Amino acid sequence: MVLRDLFAAVMLSGVFSLLSAGLFVALDAVDVAFTEAAVGAGISTVLMLGTMAFTSRTEKPPQHSRALPILVVVVTGAALIYGTADLPPFGSPDTPVQLHVAPEYIERTPHEIGLPNIVTAVLASYRGFDTLGETTVIFTAGIAVIVLLHRSSGRRRKEDEDEEEA
Amino acid sequence: MEHHFILRVISKMLIPPIMLYALYVQFHGDFGPGGGFQAGVIFAVAFILYAIVFGVETLTLVCPPAVLRAGMALGVLLYAGTGVYSLLRGYNYLDYAALAEPGHAEHGQHLGILLVEGGVGLTVASAMIAIFVAFASRSPDIKDTDW
User: How far apart are CA B79 and CA A18, in angstroms?
Assistant: First the structure.
């Protein structure tokens, strides 16, 4: 029951993302499902494959015993399951989630923004600052990856020369 | 990949519909599920599929790294610039009512959301392609037998 092939692990995580996307559709969160399918199942899988291509295809056998990681996973999982006992029943209308800001958005969007998709109205208008921050995060991530990984053609030529000299 | 004839033909047929679908998601995000983020990712996927089948060098001929970096920055600038414009018109930052005549706040909201989602889409698409190119152009070519 131990999987050391990283290719299979990446593919399994992609399958997991696609299944969670289906779960989000079942929960009526279509926008989240869309993002999960495009980003989780699509781009992340491709990027992890790209990372794998210049590291290794199989995981090294662990040096230590597996008792501690299993203990951490079991304790965390048990705590999370214990936490679900306090959650309101699924779909119940009188939860804080349904009563806090949601009714206000649903009431105000049609005449203030006039968009049928309230999710877009909340993302782009009511919480425009958040989305600006998220866009900046993606921009920063892109810049960081380019700075770390990009090799300009001039530098590559110089490295090749260095290798030849060595 | 020279002999993967079926893959090349099928991906050539798939790439235009993927881009069209990304544009649909981008501009239909006000009415249905979707928006700039999802559209940007789908648009990037079209380019990444092209790079996987035809090679990263071929992709960098289509969109050079400089264009990708400029796209990433322009998207954020478009978003932030919309806010600065509304500041200059005397409204709050990112108050889209500034984009329309007074009394027609709804039109301003539509235009503002269109601009802002455009910025998000541009940044996300360029960043995703740039990240993929950065990874893929460093790793050695994977031999066909390895897959």
Answer: 30
Residue A108: what pLDDT?
85
Say which amino acid occupies B15. Answer: I
In sign, the C-alpha dihedral spanning B63, B133, B54, A159 is positive
pLDDT interval class at B122 (50, 70, 90): very high
* Closest-CA residue to B32 (of A18, A38, A31): A31
Q: Give the gap in angstroms from C-alpha B136 to the nearest C-alpha of chain A.
A: 6
Q: Is A5 helix (H, G, I), strand (E, B) or coil?
A: strand
Chain B stretch 33-72, residues whose beta carbon is closer than 8 A to a beta carbon of chain A: 33-35, 37-38, 41-42, 44-45, 48, 52, 65, 69, 72
**Cβ proximity of B71 and B62 under 8 Å:** no
User: Which pLDDT value is given to residue A154?
Assistant: 46
B131 vs A132: CB contact, 8 Å cut-off? no
Give chain A's residues under pLDDT 70: 1, 151-166
Average pLDDT of span B49-66: 89
Distances (CA, A) of A123 to A33, A128, A146, B67, B145: 16, 6, 28, 28, 46
Distance CA A133, CA A116 (A): 24
Reply yes or no on whether the pLDDT at B26 is more than 50: yes
Give the global pTM.
0.84
Yes or no: say if B94 and B104 are a contact pair by the CB < 8 Å rule.
Answer: no
**Whether A120 and B65 lie within 8 Å, measured CB to CB:** no
